[in-house]
Amino acid sequence: MRLVSADEIDRALDPRSLVEALRRAFASATYVAPTRHHHAIGREGGATHLLMPAWSAGAPGPGAYVGTKIVDVFPDNGRLGLPAVMGVYVLQSGETGAPLAVLDGTRLTHRRTAAVSALAADLLARPDASRLLLVGAGALAPHLARAHAAVRPLSRIAVWNHRPAGAERLAAALRAEGFPAEAAPDLEAAVRAADTVCCATLATAPLLRGAWLAPGQHLDLVGAFTMGMREADDACLRRARVFVDTPAALFEGGDVAVAIRDGALREADVLADLAALCRGSHPGRGDAGEVTLFKAVGTAVADLATAVAVRDALDAA
After folding, report:
1. Fold of domain 120-295
2. pLDDT mean values, one per 10 residues, the chain (317 residues)
3. 17, 191, 213, 271: which has the fewest C-beta neighbours closer than 10 Å?
4. CATH superfamily of 2-108+300-316
5. For residue 164, is the peptide bond before it cis, meaning its omega torsion is within 30 degrees of 0?
6. pTM, whole model, 2 decimals?
């Protein structure tokens, strides 16, 4: 059994190749993912324990895989200088069940989340969208910037964070990598100036307001993984054509699920999931003036596809 570190994951996959691996996985129904297990640790809002299994559609059988991500979310980790999301990924043979590899689950989560975000933007944002706003400057944010830059040429990356120093640090780090990045001091102004708004926070109250949105924008909501969290208000959801990564977003996580629960949105208002977009069974954006919104709650399909892509790349090296 191989142990795969965060650095090995980064070396194995470039952002564009991972986006394409996920596009193929969603389009072809290669993997099966049952409902994930979701457990609260301690007081409400304290921490969350997640178990996310998936397996090849052809399992048990030759060439098949089984995988499980074991992940914990501790929102207060930032005070300790640690990522909020920690975990491991166990990859097994889908023919015998033999363990094949244990991968750094935190890095795998960052990479697959960023790739799903970029894939959705590739399918839903305007073809000429070049101005990206990152809302949140946590550990996921630089991966989001790299993934979005891999699918669209970016003329500007603005970074807003509730602690301005964090936005300054991330913008400086991205500039050091050659990206046109700068910190944004005012969130409303930054949203109004963006083509794509990518929100990855642990906010418990909406940060994005529907009144700020302009025709043609694309909103990508990555955070808000519990029903006690929100990143966008109901006006954002009502103004946009809404898409999700999986049907689980209708009842899990914040934003879409909360709006449906509270009657601000109907299930019928959610037009398609990522699999339908990748297969081409839904056209996605209808015209350049529409506002599109993509809500991701995370799926074990993306985890397993990423783990398999990492293993294949390492075996080929």
Report:
1. Rossmann fold (3.40.50)
2. 95 95 94 88 81 94 96 86 88 97 94 98 97 96 98 97 97 98 98 98 94 97 90 96 95 92 95 96 95 96 97 90
3. 17
4. ornithine cyclodeaminase, domain 1 (3.30.1780.10)
5. no
6. 0.93
